[in-house]
Each structure stands twice: as structure tokens, then as C-alpha cells.
């Protein structure tokens, strides 16, 4: 008790100390240092904090953030985001002559306020509004952060013709979107890329009255007031849905180009969207870049137009490039994309023309990339480039793409399927549409080549070689976190919630609670560690933390939404998943008894000896489970790692296969060869896999063959070796040859007792001869070298049933 209260007192003291050490202002000559995370300025009411913020392990940016938000810091302003400084030796300092300077570890100034040297700074202070101000003599404001916003506007912060918001990702690297006054004095959203730039909001096709703006006011000012009401001098008005005082808000231009107003829930520290410029994200022009098409999957994602390929997997806004060259010899053909349109970039527009005429216009123009034709009005829009593609049910328009005369498969045409599963497993190998999430996509491992970071790394490399590794590691860590979802970002997207109906997404917190902070470990495998947990609804579950998932959020979620639909009594049910920051976790059905290997091979007491009937039941159940995986969707779900460890036994000793679908998760988009590097367990992998041949469902048939042999013998193949040097493949080959010979001899009529010799001695010859022979026969044919000669799992089930 005493120890407890003492430590409590100590804690309080530390707290108090921290609060004292956290300053309220900076006076000339003093500085904040990067090393001490408590060396920060607080606003008087504590809402905002200002100091160095690490965007990765050792890259720091002088920023202002909300002090009390859940998860990561919500940065509202930053100074040196283009030049992060090192985690050691860097400072921000106020000079008496009115300059505030951010210095890197080597003394280099990476950022400074431009204040005329004649003015004398008295102090720098963070206000309750989140404004960092530098006061001179007589309380005049020499400089304020409100005058140079980054991607966020706070209440009472003016946006003027001199300021603009620029979208940024989590590493604070500026994106391509900006929000500022245009030359008509209208508040506007711009898209800027080297080869193309345009206005996308307000809709440039509307006239000034339709926009309900006024372009006559040269005052150019806009401000969000304390109650969540925005008023611009151009009559731009909007208000938060939770309009009212005493709510903390921010207006942020997100990385996906949408302008969103957020409100903070003080009790749980989360942000929710209370207004946004585009309720439907795909409508943001340029989101998917040149030749890209925004689709609802149901979550907004980017796909390429047929005949095009992704330029940069990690940055979909770079768009897609054509895989063909148009010869312009009049031999081209047109591919129709239903409910799809590319906005803008019309070469001309004509109405009341026939489809044929429209087609001709485009065919005769070498620069025409395709045309949009509106059936009803006969409007024809030939396109000079394909930007702002969106496919959406009910769009009612079609675009006709000009392609060279080639075969275009239906499956390469993107469709939005907010309610269906167009991108769910389609076994056809041709279904190659690749979609990815674009909200705040990381620049991934290439961030090192990003100029800003290059600067940092080159510098550090020269001096602190070892630290570089840490920086890189830190970045890698951040980048892995990048996929993280912003809560409430997609409230208005149709169908988004639908994925999560039966199959739920869990938060990391929930799972932490369910597993009592991952206490009760019940298993550990190559794909991750498994813990036992109890959900709120009292359901007992197995919670598996996946190791090494290098996948983006979108893909992971997509893959999981497929796995979540798989339901068979011989497959472990996947109840849900968690994809929270770096965490990728599966929530699985809890299966009472341990995995097959523990029961079958363990010599430790108390041992359940699997009786013959039970072994046969296990063989049949596993076969059924695999047949379901292979058959339900042709060859979509290949297990790729079937082994006794992945076969769980329930209370009735009914087998349940686990870890299916993970091969896909670990390998999405990679070549099959890569699978072999990552997956598969020695002794159970088919020979074609090792030799790098294409992987088909027959690799599972091979593994099943090995498991059958082990079920019969009650020992691991790797333990059958006659001497320590014998390779497991050699042993298997020897045993299979022996069994094959015996089967052949049997055909010639010589009855032998070889089956009894082969079968687990612990069974004391208590087995069904017919079933045993069938299992041997099947096992031998399953482990055929040539995958084509192996039976399908469906055949196997039938054969087993024939002797059941
Ligand atoms: C920043 O530093 C804190 C504490 O040192 C650490 O917990 C956090 O993960 C770091 N953040 C990033 C993005 O590296
Ligand atoms: C200060 O002035 C320099 C040179 O004109 C400019 O490059 C820099 O961006 C300015 N800094 C700020 C914070 O405005
Ligand atoms: C915003 O503009 C108004 C009107 O011009 C002005 O009174 C106010 O001081 C400005 N606010 C800030 C923080 O600059
Ligand atoms: C200003 O906006 C309001 C509503 O947003 C609209 O009713 C009004 O007509 C607009 N005024 C002008 C001059 O466009
Ligand atoms: C221009 O905008 C300011 C600020 O919103 C407003 O006070 C003023 O009345 C506007 N002037 C005109 C002519 O609309
Ligand atoms: C704020 O969060 C709490 C806890 O999650 C929740 O109960 C409450 O309804 C939320 N309030 C608002 C206004 O969303
Ligand atoms: C298109 O033409 C360029 C040069 O004219 C060539 O390098 C490229 O390989 C061609 N692409 C295809 C797909 O034929
Ligand atoms: C899979 O794609 C093919 C075209 O490649 C299509 O014919 C088939 O209907 C699709 N199957 C499903 C289940 O969507």
C-alpha cells in the first residue's frame, strides 16, 4: 500500500515537474531542443503543443499539434517539413533581432522567420487558438504561424490571397492539391502536377451563379468561426453538421484532395468529419492520375483503363501509362466502358451527332484518346487526354477508348461494384485489375530518394553511418503505418460498411482487451503468434498476429473480405481482422484441441492416441476442406502450407484447416517464385514449387499426400530417416517407392502384410485394411512428381468416401 502511494506521489511529482518544465513562451536567446520531448511550448489552456515532432525515428519537424488526440499527433502546422532535422543536436532558437531559426544538428539553419532585423523580438508564444506568435515591443505581432498555414486551417485563422493550404501526407511531404483564392477571387481547389494542372472545385463547368459564389469582392478573406461556420468573401459558406460553440475543429486539405472539416470528440480524442467538399471521393478529379479510373470497390480505389499499366504502385495519382503505341492508321478500335467518364480535356464538343459521326471524329484525329458519347442528347466529346476517370453505377454515360486492334478482355475493364464483389476472387487468371487505396499512400521504400530525405540521409551517412540505419528503419516503420485509416473519412461512401457485416473489423484496442494484452499465447508459427482471447460477446477466439505482412491496408482488407466469406466445417472460421497502424491481426474461431502434430507426434504424456477411425475422419475432413477451397472458386484459394501444424482438432476430433488464404496475403502481386521463398515447409512442399514452376492447387494435393502418410505412420516423414544425413525428400522417395512396389505386387495377387508393417505400431494392428490401403494408394498418387498426375482434392474425397 505504502509503496503504491509513494510511487503515486512520485508520478505526480514527475508530472508537476514536466508541467513546470514545459514552457509557455520562448524569450530571446533561449531555445527548444529536439532531444527532450518535454521541451515544448503549451498554449495556456493546454489545447495545443508546439515543439519538435518526429515524423520517423530520427527525422524531426518543428510543429504545432493538438495535445489531446487519440493515436497519433494531429499536426496543424509545421515549419521545416521540407527539411526535417536530426534527432540529436537540433534546436529552434529565438534571436533578439527577431529571427526564429530551426537548426539542424550541424548548425545549419533549415528554416527561419523573415522578420526585418530592425525589429526586436520580445517573446514567442503559443496562443489558445493554436497560433504561434512572435511579439515585438509594444505587443505588436512580428510574425505568426497563422500567416503560413500548411494543410490545415484552424478556427479564426484567416485564409487570404497570400496564403494557401497544400495537401500533405503523414510524413508531411506536400501533395498535389492546394486550396487558395484563384485569380477571380474565388476560394478554389487546385490540382498541380508537372504536366497537368486544373481546378476541380468548385466545378469548373458551372457558371458563377450555379456556383453561388461572387467574384466581385476583392477583399479575399475566408475564416472558419468558433461555431463551425465558414464564410468567405466570395460567398463560400458551409457549416459543420455539429454546428455550435465549444467544439474543437480543423479544416484540412487531405492527401486525397478532399477538403474536410473535422470535429474533435473530447472524450475519446477522435476526429469525425462534419463537412467535406466532395461527399463522393471519386469525384475528385485527378485522384487516379492520367489514364486512371476511380472505382468504388466499394471503397474508392484506383484502377487503370484497359491497355494501361500502373506507373507507380505506391502513388496512384501518377496514373497509368499505355502498353501500346497508336499508329494512327485508322485501324484502331474502340472499347466501351460502361458508366464511366473522363472529365474535361475535351478537344471539342458537339451535340446532336450520331454515334457513328462521333466515332469518326475521334478516329480521324491522331491526338484523340477516346470519346464520351451521351446517347440521349447526341453529345460528343473527343478527349485529348484521359484524366479524372470515374466509374460509378448510375453515371449513365459511357466512354469509348481508342486502342490498337487487340483483344481486350472483359475482365480488364474496371467497374464500380459498391454492393457486389467484382474484385473478389475471380479465378480467371485474366482478372488482372489491380486496385489500391490512394488516401495517403506512402512513397514506401523510395522515400530515401525523396529529395528532402535524401538531403537528410546523405548528410547523416557521412557522419553517423549507424544512425542512418536507424533513420531508414524508422522511415520504414512509419511507412508501414501509413496505410492507417483515418476514422470517419468515408462516411458517405456507399457500401463501405457492407464488408463488415458478418465479418468484422476490430480495433487494436478491442483485441488488446480481448486477449488481456496478448497474454495467453496458444501457438506460434511462421505466419505469426496466436493468442487466446474472449470477445465482448463472450465468444472465445484465437487471435493471430500476422508477421511480415507487407501489404497495404486496402489489399489486406480486400483479401480478408474474401477469406471472411469462406465457411466450411473443416476450415477454421475467420471472424474478423484488425488492420491498425502496423498491426495486421486475424480473429479466428477458437478450436478446442491442439493441432494435429501435437496429437500425432507428441511423445509427451498425457497423450491422446488417435484411433484408426479418428485418423480416417481427419483424412476425410482435411480432404473436404481442401476440396472446398480449391473447388468453390476453381483454384483461387491455394493453401500453400498444409501440414499437421495447420490442422486443428475440435472437441470431437473433427479437423479444421487453418491459415488458408495467407499465401495470397503474403504474396499479392508478386511472382509465384516469391511464394516459395516465403511459404511452404520443408517436407511438405511439392517439387515443382522448389523448381520455380507455376503453383497450382496440386501443391496442396502433394502436401496432403505427405500428411496422409504421416497419419498412417504416426510419425513425421523427417523422422523416418535411417541415418541423420538422409534428406527428407530422399526418405520420402524411398518410402513411396517401397509402397508403390507393394501395391504393384498386390495387384499381381501376392497378399502381403506390408500394410500392417507400415501403419503406426501404437495402433496394435487395430485398423481397417480397406481404408488403410486406400489411404496408401491415395498418398502415393498425391505425391507424384508430376503435378498433373496427382488427383484433385475432389477425387480424393470421393475415393475416401468410397471406403468410409
Ligand atoms: C516518435 O518517438 C516516440 C517516442 O520516442 C515513438 O514512440 C514514436 O514511435 C516515434 N514516432 C515515429 C513516427 O517514429
Ligand atoms: C524567408 O525568405 C527566404 C528568402 O526570401 C525564403 O526562401 C524563405 O522561404 C522565407 N522563409 C519563410 C518562413 O517565409
Ligand atoms: C483575420 O482578419 C480579420 C479581418 O481582416 C482581422 O481583424 C484579424 O485580426 C485577422 N486574424 C488573424 C489571426 O490574423
Ligand atoms: C451566397 O450563398 C447563398 C447560400 O450559399 C446563396 O443563397 C446566395 O444566393 C449566394 N449569393 C450570391 C451573391 O451568390
Ligand atoms: C466582401 O467580403 C467581406 C468579408 O466577407 C464582406 O464583409 C463584404 O461585405 C464583401 N463585399 C461585397 C461587395 O460583397
Ligand atoms: C464521443 O466519444 C464517446 C466515447 O467513444 C461517445 O460515447 C460519444 O457519443 C462521442 N460523442 C460524440 C459527439 O460523437
Ligand atoms: C512504342 O514506341 C516506342 C518508341 O517509339 C518504343 O520504345 C516502345 O517500346 C513502343 N511500345 C510498344 C508497347 O510497342
Ligand atoms: C470471372 O471473369 C470472367 C472473365 O475473365 C467472367 O467471364 C466470369 O463471369 C467471372 N466470374 C465471376 C464469378 O465473376
TrEMBL record:
ATP binds at residue 544. This is Receptor-like serine/threonine-protein kinase. Residues 328-404 form the Apple domain. Keywords: ATP-binding, Disulfide bond, EGF-like domain, Glycoprotein, Kinase, Membrane, Nucleotide-binding, Receptor, Serine/threonine-protein kinase, Signal, Transferase, Transmembrane, Transmembrane helix. GO terms for biological process: recognition of pollen; response to other organism. SMART domains: B_lectin, PAN_AP, S_TKc. Its main location: membrane. It comes from Triticum aestivum (Wheat). Belongs to the protein kinase superfamily. Ser/Thr protein kinase family. It is a single-pass type I membrane protein.
Amino acid at each position: 500500500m505504502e509503496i503504491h502511494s509513494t510511487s503515486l506521489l512520485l508520478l505526480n511529482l514527475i508530472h508537476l515537474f514536466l508541467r513546470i518544465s514545459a514552457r509557455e513562451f520562448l524569450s530571446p536567446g533561449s531555445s527548444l531542443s529536439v532531444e527532450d520531448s518535454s521541451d515544448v511550448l503549451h498554449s495556456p489552456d493546454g489545447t495545443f503543443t508546439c515543439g519538435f515532432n518526429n515524423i520517423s525515428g530520427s527525422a524531426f519537424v518543428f510543429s504545432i499539434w493538438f495535445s489531446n488526440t487519440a493515436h497519433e499527433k494531429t499536426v496543424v502546422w509545421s515549419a521545416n517539413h521540407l527539411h526535417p532535422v536530426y534527432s540529436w543536436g537540433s534546436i529552434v532558437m529565438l534571436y533578439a533581432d527577431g529571427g526564429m531559426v530551426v537548426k539542424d544538428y550541424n548548425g545549419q539553419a533549415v528554416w527561419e522567420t523573415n522578420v526585418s532585423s530592425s525589429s526586436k523580438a520580445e517573446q514567442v508564444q503559443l496562443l489558445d487558438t493554436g497560433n504561434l506568435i512572435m511579439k515585438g515591443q509594444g505587443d505588436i505581432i512580428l510574425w505568426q504561424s497563422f500567416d503560413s498555414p500548411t494543410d490545415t486551417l484552424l478556427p479564426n485563422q484567416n485564409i487570404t490571397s497570400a496564403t494557401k493550404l497544400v495537401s500533405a501526407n503523414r510524413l508531411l511531404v506536400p501533395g498535389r492539391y492546394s486550396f487558395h483564392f484563384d485569380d477571380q477571387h474565388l476560394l478554389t481547389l487546385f490540382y498541380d502536377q508537372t504536366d497537368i494542372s486544373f481546378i476541380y472545385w468548385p466545378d469548373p463547368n458551372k457558371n458563377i451563379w450555379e456556383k453561388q459564389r461572387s467574384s466581385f469582392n476583392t477583399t479575399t478573406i475566408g475564416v472558419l468561426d468558433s461555431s463551425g461556420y465558414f464564410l468567405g468573401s466570395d460567398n463560400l459558406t458551409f457549416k459543420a453538421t455539429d454546428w455550435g460553440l465549444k467544439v474543437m475543429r480543423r479544416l484540412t486539405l487531405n492527401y486525397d484532395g478532399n477538403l474536410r472539416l473535422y470535429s474533435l470528440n473530447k472524450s475519446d480524442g477522435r476526429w469525425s468529419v462534419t463537412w467535406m467538399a466532395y461527399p463522393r471521393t471519386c469525384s475528385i478529379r485527378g485522384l487516379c492520375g492520367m489514364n486512371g479510373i476511380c472505382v468504388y470497390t466499394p471503397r474508392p480505389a484506383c484502377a487503370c483503363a484497359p491497355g494501361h499499366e500502373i506507373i507507380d504502385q505506391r502513388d496512384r495519382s501518377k496514373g497509368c501509362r499505355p502498353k501500346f503505341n497508336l499508329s494512327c492508321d485508322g485501324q484502331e478500335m474502340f472499347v466501351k466502358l460502361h458508366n464511366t467518364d473522363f472529365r474535361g480535356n475535351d478537344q471539342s464538343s458537339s451535340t446532336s451527332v450520331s454515334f457513328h459521326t462521333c466515332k469518326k471524329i475521334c478516329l480521324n484525329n491522331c491526338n484523340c484518346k477516346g470519346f464520351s458519347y451521351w446517347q440521349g442528347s447526341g453529345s460528343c466529346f473527343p478527349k485529348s487526354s484521359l484524366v479524372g476517370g470515374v466509374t460509378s453505377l448510375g453515371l449513365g454515360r459511357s466512354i469509348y477508348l481508342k486502342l490498337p486492334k487487340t483483344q481486350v478482355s472483359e475482365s480488364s475493364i474496371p467497374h464500380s461494384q459498391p454492393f457486389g464483389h467484382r474484385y473478389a476472387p475471380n479465378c480467371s487468371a485474366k482478372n488482372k485489375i489491380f486496385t489500391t487505396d490512394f488516401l495517403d499512400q506512402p512513397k514506401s521504400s523510395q522515400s530515401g530518394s525523396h529529395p528532402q530525405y535524401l538531403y537528410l540521409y546523405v548528410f547523416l551517412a557521412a557522419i553517423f553511418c549507424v544512425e542512418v540505419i536507424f533513420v531508414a528503419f524508422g522511415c520504414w516503420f512509419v511507412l508501414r503505418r501509413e496505410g492507417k485509416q483515418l476514422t470517419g473519412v468515408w462516411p458517405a461512401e456507399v457500401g463501405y460498411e457492407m464488408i463488415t457485416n458478418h465479418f468484422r473489423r476490430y480495433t487494436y484496442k478491442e483485441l488488446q482487451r480481448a486477449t488481456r494484452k496478448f497474454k495467453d499465447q496458444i501457438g506460434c508459427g511462421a505466419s505469426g503468434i496466436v493468442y487466446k482471447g474472449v470477445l465482448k460477446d463472450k465468444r472465445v477466439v484465437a487471435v493471430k498476429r500476422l508477421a511480415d505482412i507487407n501489404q497495404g491496408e486496402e489489399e489486406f482488407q480486400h483479401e480478408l473480405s474474401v477469406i471472411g466469406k469462406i465457411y466450411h466445417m473443416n476450415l477454421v472460421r475467420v471472424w474478423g481482422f484488425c488492420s491498425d497502424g502496423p498491426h495486421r491481426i486475424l480473429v479466428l474461431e477458437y478450436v478446442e484441441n491442439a493441432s494435429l502434430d501435437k496429437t500425432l507426434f507428441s511423445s509427451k504424456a498425457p497423450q491422446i492416441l488417435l484411433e484408426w477411425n479418428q485418423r480416417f475422419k481427419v483424412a476425410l475432413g482435411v480432404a473436404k476442406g481442401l476440396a472446398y477451397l480449391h473447388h468453390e472458386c476453381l483454384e483461387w484459394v491455394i493453401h500453400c502450407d498444409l501440414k499437421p501444424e495447420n490442422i486443428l482438432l475440435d472437441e470431437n476430433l473433427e479437423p479444421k484447416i487453418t491459415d488458408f488464404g495467407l499465401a495470397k496475403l503474403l504474396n499479392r502481386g508478386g511472382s509465384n517464385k516469391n511464394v516459395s521463398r516465403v511459404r511452404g515447409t520443408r517436407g511438405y512442399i511439392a517439387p515443382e514449387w522448389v523448381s520455380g514452376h507455376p503453383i497450382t492447387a496440386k501443391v496442396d494435393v502433394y502436401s496432403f499426400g505427405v500428411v496422409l502418410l504421416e497419419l498412417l505412420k504416426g510419425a513425421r516423414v523427417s523422422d523416418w530417416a535411417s541415418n541423420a544425413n538422409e534428406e527428407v525428400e530422399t526418405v520420402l522417395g524411398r518410402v513411396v517407392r517401397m509402397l508403390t512396389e507393394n501395391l504393384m505386387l498386390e495387384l499381381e495377387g501376392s497378399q502381403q502384410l506390408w500394410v500392417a508393417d507400415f501403419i503406426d505400431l501404437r495402433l496394435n494392428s487395430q485398423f481397417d485394411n480397406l481404408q488403410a490401403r486406400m489411404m496408401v494408394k491415395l498418398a502415393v498418387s498425391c505425391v507424384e512428381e508430376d503435378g498433373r498426375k496427382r488427383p484433385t482434392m475432389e477425387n480424393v474425397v470421393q475415393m475416401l468416401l468410397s471406403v468410409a
